[in-house]
Amino acid sequence: MFWQKDIELMDKEQLRNTQLDCINKEIKIAKRSEFYKKKLSNIDKISSLDDVKNLPFTTKEDLRNSFPYGFLATDLQNVIRLHSSSGTTGNPTVVFHTAFDISNWANLSARCMYTAGARNNDIFQNTMGYGLFTGGIGFHYGAERLGMLTIPVGPGNSKRQIWFMQNFKTSVIHILPSYALRLFQTVEEMHVDVKRDLNLRIAFIGAEPHSEEMRKKIEELYNIKAFNSYGLSEISGPGVAFECECQSGLHIWEDYVYPEIIDKDTLEVLPDGCEGELVLTTLQREAMPLIRYRTRDLTKIISEPCACGRTHRRIARITARTDDMMIINGVNIFPIQIEKTIMSIPEAGRNYIIEIFENNFMDKLCIKLEIDNENFGGTLRDLEKLQNRLECELKQEIGVTPVIKFVDAGSLPVSDGKAKRVFDLRNKNK
Ligand code: DLL
What we know:
Blueprint: H1 5-8, H2 12-30, H3 34-39, H4 60-65, E1 79-84, E2 94-98, H5 99-115, E3 123-126, H6 134-146, E4 149-151, H7 158-168, E5 172-175, H8 177-189, H9 194-197, E6 202-206, H10 212-222, E7 225-231, E8 238-243, E9 250-252, E10 257-262, E11 276-282, E12 293-299, E13 301-302, E14 314-315, E15 320-321, E16 326-328, E17 331-333, H11 335-343, E18 352-359, E19 362-371, H12 373-376, H13 380-398, E20 403-408, E21 422-424
Parallel strand pairs: 3-4, 3-5, 5-6, 6-7, 18-21, 19-20
Antiparallel strand pairs: 1-2, 7-8, 8-9, 9-14, 10-11, 11-12, 12-15, 13-14, 16-17, 18-19
């Protein structure tokens, strides 16, 4: 059993009071760090949650500029783990954890998995990357805390993934949504029948944006239920918000973080129900509290009660990041708009990339799609029809007519980690 009933069903007022107490504790701890000693020099505590909006924001740049130890709020001897972003541009962001932080995060992850229906008699296969990325090790600890038999396969090696699923009757899988679609190609190549040969019933999918259409595709292909999992390494990793069995938004664990939605331009706090940038304040962190951390993720808070009875509010599926937007000849487009159109057309394949380039001083949007010839089985004429349909539906969704190119299954670049979908090939130096 891992049903934290007293926390998950906590009365709203009690939850708000707990949040206020925790924020004040976090401010106190945070001020032991070099960064917050300066940033919060004139604040010791707040007297109501309404005052949170007067606290300063923390940004990814702040984390980078304070590399390596500027945010550390405890003695190094209390720190047992570090996670870090890939840091392809500039300093990586580094996050520290005490033993309490790690144990707390394991509880939270176990809570998430239980919420979605996983139980201690499940067999859990973790295909997320182990290492500095939080997807692997974060949920590994949670799965063990829940008591599941945990198989730490890690990413890639699709045949081995299927082999483990078949032989150990994996029932719960933790997987990147883009990899779930690619892995299915191997399922087909190995002539595995998901109903006959596998025992999968649940997938936790997250770490990258994906549409409702993509979730449905994964559910249909594997004959399972797929639950959206949101998190970020700055806050801990997976576990920050998670879908319950109702699959209608992700419960953001309000005993663990205090969420706000702000207008990304004016930085004003928006009411529940309005879309904007998610801002999070940690409520229980020892090594590295974060106050009003700007996630850059766009969503809205859903405050209507959930049918599951949990009192923690929900956030809507993350539609994009503030830095995700592509501007094509002046038109603003988010990659997820393209994805949901592709995923809603069954013949359109499962893997794609978006290329933007310049031609005669105009931006051109090209979408390359993998077509599985065996499954498609269509004639050239069918391919032409599919191309026209995609162009038409995409024009309607994004207001720009893209060039559609079909490529062979398995020919697009892949990585063991999150899918890189957008390749902007425009000359930025002109
Ligand atoms: O991706 C943590 C994680 C691991 C979450 C496994 C879920 C499952 P980072 O690498 O720091 O941490 O990336 C965090 O990924 O700010 C979002 O932009 C994006 N992201 C994470 N989950 C989702 C999701 C992990 N469910 C960044 N939907 C976040 C959309 C997501 N985007």
